[in-house]
Amino acid sequence: MATRLNVTSEPCNRVDNETPALGASWHAVLTSDELGDEPVRVELLGEPWMLARLDGDVVAFHDRCPHRNAPLSIGTICGTQLQCAYHGWMFDADGACTEIPSLGPDATIPSRAAARRAGGVAEAYGLVWISPETPLFDLPAFDEWDDDSFDNARNEPRETPASVGQLIDNFLDATHLRTVHAGTFGVDDGGYLPPSEIVRDGWSAHTTFEVQYKNFDDPLVETGEHPLVQPQRLYKEIAGPTTAVVRLYHPMTDKTVSFLFACSPTNNDSTRVFKLMSRNDLTDPAAQLPALLDFEDRVLDEDLVVLEAYDDMAVNTELRDEVSVRSDRLSVAYRRILAELVAHRSSRETALDSTMAPAS
Ligand code: FES
Ligand SMILES: [Fe+2]
What we know:
alpha+beta; Rieske Iron-sulfur Protein; Naphthalene 1,2-dioxygenase Alpha Subunit, Chain A, domain 1; 5 helices; binds fe (ii) ion
């Protein structure tokens, strides 16, 4: 007999790293390099997941064997199959159980003896992505990564107690640059941010700010042909609840530096931050990139000083609880998208099969 439950218990005005409504979205969880020949366990939204390459295909299963809950991540990859370490059940890339050794070779496998697959798994931009449930939208687009005219680099993943909501909100924000980033690129220009139009597109939104920037990367600054402080067109995009795309275009040099920030909501104590950089302004990438990555780590350090000082890491989506001004319109759009994700999930009915597998 099937039992139907209404999922309505989720609070709708705060989003943290274990908010179930984030489950229908893509989250980067590993670099491609971190997923080798052995299964890997990751935690996402407070839940354990196992990732493995089965004959080249990346699979993601809930890290609980359907038999007796042993972690599948301590199992063994056998070609296109994964073998549980406890009683040796075998699972294919779809999660279907193909063999139960204790039943012998001709046994009928119970249909419920299946590993629970993630709703989506993908590999893009040198990262492995999971959507625990069927994703509501596509993987974030970061076309520069596959553009030959751009050079790519990635900072080492960072762990922080700040939440994904705090981090994405920060990466979207353009009014903290002169204060938080005074030690790197911030310009003390008075802080005025000209209004910009917010473009909402499904579960995404973006805008382009006009700001001032210390362009240390422009070689003509050293020769005195260009000023250090230059105008910058700053494109910021909400690319899902845990990912942001930021593009820095410098009209004086006609060059672009782009970032993909992908934040993995591990649990309510931890977030893993992936920061990818793709840029078309380098003359000697191998020589230049190490210092540029170091600079980007320092920029993130500056943000984390503030974000990690919060005593509540959740993002409040009740707009009346905070004071927002015109220059906060993109972060208001972010809060609206988060609130809509929570409402979307809360309005859904979830059917759960309460039947048990028949005893054998
Ligand atoms: S717990 Fe996995 S086979 Fe028994
Ligand atoms: Fe920042």
